[in-house]
Amino acid sequence: MSDNADLERRHFLTAATTIAGGVGIVGAAIPFVASFNPSARARALGAPVEVDISKVEPGALIKVEWRGRAVMILNRTEAMLDSLGDMMSVLADPGSEVSLQPDFAANEHRSLRPEILVVEGVCTHLGCAPIPRFEVAPADLGADWVGGFYCPCHGSKFDLSGRVFSGVPAPTNLTVPPYSFLSDGTLLIGSEAGAV
């Protein structure tokens, strides 16, 4: 009878140890698996950003941050829009065909609405910040300069649609992020849904 009791006791201890070990493994695995979820900060960095553009005057530029990058929003004047067609011969990719852009950016304006330009403020050469240079024919950029963006790090030039000039270090146009208009005066950067 003691052999039978020892056998039952061993089965009980084996089962209890197996169950306790399984519970311990599950308990240890839950935080490990949960660590694969992005943090609240990471989710916030990738979230769409609403921007009030109702007070941005024609010819003015504002900068906002989306996903840790600067995004430039330019309200182009009629004169700025008229100059875009004159630039085709000096541009490397006037139709925005080389780099991946939203479908709506494959036009001369590279925008949903001709007057509002939305581009990332990051040079496609080495990631420097291009600066807005809207003056016409400044001495340092030449008599043929009609305005645009200039990267002071290595001399890349972009027109008023963010299209790259030929013969400069930057290989592609400035990136157009996904965006939409929630209303006439509100822009949503990071989502093409809900366009007005």
- Write out the CATH superfamily name of the largest domain: Rieske [2Fe-2S] iron-sulphur domain
Terminus-to-terminus distance:
84 Å
Number of helices, where a helix is a run of at least 4 consecutive DSSP H or I residues? 3
Overall mean confidence score, pLDDT: 85
CATH architecture of the largest domain, by name, is 3-layer Sandwich
What is the CATH class of the largest domain? Mainly Beta
**What is the N-to-C order of secondary-structure elements (H for helix, E for strand)?**
HHEEEHEEEEEE
The major beta sheet can be summarized as: 3 strands, antiparallel
What is the number of independent domains?
Answer: 2
Shape verdict: elongated
Query: Unreliable stretches, pLDDT < 50, 5 or more residues?
Result: none
Helix share of residues?
A: 10-25%
Q: What fraction of residues sit in β-strands? A: 15-25%
Radius of gyration: 28 Å
- Counted beta strands: 9
Enter the CATH topology name of the largest domain.
Rieske Iron-sulfur Protein
Which structural class fits the helix and strand makeup? alpha+beta
Tell me what the structure shows.
- With 196 residues, the chain is an alpha+beta fold.
- It is 23% helix and 20% strand.
- It has 3 helices and 9 strands; from the N terminus they run H-H-E-E-E-H-E-E-E-E-E-E.
- The strands form 3 sheets. The chain has a 3-stranded antiparallel β-sheet, with no helix packed on it.
- It is elongated, with a radius of gyration of 28 Å.
- The N and C termini lie far apart (84 Å).
